[in-house]
Amino acid sequence: MTISSSGAAPAAGLLSGTGRSILAGGILGFDMVGRAIAMAALLFSGALASGLVSAVVLMLGSSAAVIALSLLARGDEAAGVGAAQQGPLAALLPVFGLLSQNGAGLAPGAGAATAFVLLGVLSLATGLVLVVLALGNLGRFVRFLPYPVSSGFVAATGALLCASAVRMAWPAPGAAGELAYVPLGLTIATGLLALLGQRIAQEAGVMVALVAAVVIFHLGAGAIGLSDPLLHLPGLLPELPEPSLAIRPALPHLQLGAVDWSLILHSLPLVGAGVLIAVLGHYLNLNAIEMAGEADLDDRRATVLTGMANLGIGGLGGIPAYPSSSTTLSARMMGAGHPAFPLALLVMLGLAMALAGDVLAIVPGFVSGGLLLFIGGRVAWQWLVRPIGSLPWHEWLLSALIVAISLVFGILPAVAFGCLAASVLFVVSYGQLPVVRRAGSLAGFRSGVDRAASEAALLDAEAARVTVLQVEGFLFFGTADQLARRMRLALAPVDQGPEAGARTRFLVLDCRRLTGVDAAAVATLERQARRARSQGHLILLAGAPRALTEAVSRRGFDDPGKKAGLAVMPDLERALERVEDLILAGQSAPASDALSTLRSFTASEVEARALQARLQIRDLEPGAVLIRAGERSSEIFLLDQGRLGIYVSRPDGGRLRLRLIGAGSIVGEMALYLGLPRTADVIAEGPARVLVMTEAALADLAQDAPAELAAWHAVMAGALADKLSRTTRAFADFS
């Protein structure tokens, strides 16, 4: 594992790349040691002090495990530096507070055993969730959580760490005098000193600040004498229960029989909150690393490795660990691009694990508290304070509320509020998306039935009485009202214009892009259907998903046999065809046949009948093929009775119907006039009769009746112009 320096300028100096990497590993390793000591001192105090050294060892081991696994796996260098994280532990602070005061009434040693098991359960659960998310490619759903909620959770962990650091140094009940607040003052001063060091020289500055605090303390202690009462205030001198622990750190002998399993069971909700914080922290850190490095991350691979590391860590009672964006970016700034960097990190962590007791013996409590204050403050600053100018005020306020709730009521109520807020944000945001993709009338939406010119003219005149709404997305209670408003508006009378007072008679809902519905959406459609029935409208659901059609059928508000209410149609084509048929039936349209078409495009009845006399009559049985795709023919057909279907062949050998041709329509004129082969099959849908203009008949017209030939060409030109005009209007309405 090496660290790419893309996105940041590596530290310059006299050291080579190897030297800079080793120095960076030492500095950042020291930083991890300080964080482990600070967190262990917070968790393992009072009745849990016997596990303090072991806790430091396990926390350092957690960082070493995730680093070593990444190194052995030879992962993507952009994946960053893993480290044990304090954030998830903030969720368990109430339990550790109870154990440290022996509030559970446990036997000596049982509290520490229970604490380590609790940490192990947290790490195991975190590892399992991360592996499942990665293998199932479910990480994208975690990222669906609104940013204000995610940042609020992370900022809350920082605020809880700050509060815990202050609580560690706060005078005990009954303490009096000005000296009682000395540990608190030193804790705050150390935190500010660490902040100053970080501003001057990043993580190296923090290291220098902490070392300086320890050295100054011991010099002062030596000057005034160890017997001075000031040095025995809580939070100053390290509190180790046994001197041997400062010399020979070892994992406590965990007697599983001494573990308070009922307390573990009752703590599972807090463990769940910790897992949530860990998962969010993992993905937020990966995002930060990816953005700073200006390179794509294989987040699935990084998540699997992190999950496996946590599964191993959890078996030993370690704490959750995952990539740290701050450590990674610091390493890049220090020019840690050589493979020696992770090795230097591991060496530093290994030395600290071996000497954990000795290190703890010289680190005052206020230094641990100050570092904890610095860590928590930096997290709260990054995720709560710094986004003030970049987030909308209401989003930032949501993050602040999550932090406030966590401080006042605890992390579980904060998590519950955050999840509720995320749900509300999702509903509000999704509900504002337009549910109607496109709206139009019969002028732009037509069925595939090719009708006679007289029928097409009637449909054009009634086009405004039909409204088509193309619905998309998931229809639920947040969007159902939006659709209901559009439906009511479509069915309302026109207020002004030449069609003032006119009403939409038919409302077609094109639901093929609808992904699903909930019960509230179905109830909304039911109300609109009953309203439409009472007012004489017809709503047609076209291509609706199966869940919607089954719900409509169960509730029984579809009315396929009547002309008002709601009807379910298999697709938009059949819905439009039914609407057109109802319009034509209601207008008492004259019967369409070949002669009516000829009348539409000729100057007189005489011309129309003269042309009809030139045509041959051909009767077709149902399923008879009138035209075959690919063949050449010099015949033009006028459908006199029945219907014809235009089909193309599918790859599987079946046929797909493109259009349906009604009586009075003309077929085959394009191929004849362009001299091209037929492009589709034309098949009789039932008993049909066509009138045929043959090549011989055209030759006779050219020789014997040029006026009739001109009239025939006028008919063809009129029919083509009509088709082109309707197609143009459809495209104009679509745009």
Report the C-alpha radius of gyration, rounded. Answer: 40 Å
Strand content of the residues, in percent? 5-15%
Counting helices, strands and paired strands, the structural category is alpha/beta
Q: How many strand segments?
A: 16
Number of individual domains? 3
Percent of residues in helices = 55-70%
Describe this structure in words.
- The protein is α/β, with parallel strands linked by helices.
- The chain is elongated, with a radius of gyration of 40 Å.
Structure characteristics:
Membrane-Transporter-like, 5-stranded mixed beta sheet, cNMP-bd_CS, transmembrane helix, 16 strands, 57% helix, Transcription Regulator spoIIAA, Cyclic nucleotide-binding domain-containing protein, alpha/beta, Jelly Rolls, 26 helices, 735 residues, membrane
TL;DR of this structure?
The protein is of the alpha/beta class and 735 residues long. It is 57% helix and 12% strand.
Please write out the topology.
Layout: H1 17-43, H2 52-73, E1 81-84, H3 93-100, H4 110-135, H5 139-142, H6 147-169, H7 182-224, H8 261-266, H9 268-293, H10 299-314, E2 321-324, H11 325-333, H12 340-354, H13 356-362, H14 365-385, H15 393-408, H16 411-431, E3 436-441, E4 449-450, H17 453-461, E5 466-475, H18 477-491, E6 506-517, H19 519-535, E7 538-542, H20 546-555, E8 565-569, H21 572-586, H22 594-601, H23 605-614, E9 616-620, E10 625-627, E11 636-641, E12 644-649, E13 655-661, E14 666-667, H24 669-674, E15 681-684, E16 688-693, H25 695-704, H26 706-734
Parallel strand pairs: 4-13, 5-6, 6-7, 7-8
Antiparallel strand pairs: 1-2, 3-5, 9-16, 10-15, 11-14, 11-16, 12-13, 12-15
Helix pairs in contact: 1-2, 1-7, 1-12, 1-14, 2-10, 2-12, 4-9, 4-10, 6-7, 6-9, 6-14, 6-15, 6-16, 7-14, 9-11, 15-16, 16-18, 18-19, 22-23, 22-26, 25-26
Transmembrane segments: 21-45, 51-72, 111-135, 147-167, 179-197, 204-226, 263-284, 304-323, 343-375, 396-428
Domain Cyclic nucleotide-binding: 615-701
Pfam families: cNMP_binding (PF00027), STAS (PF01740)
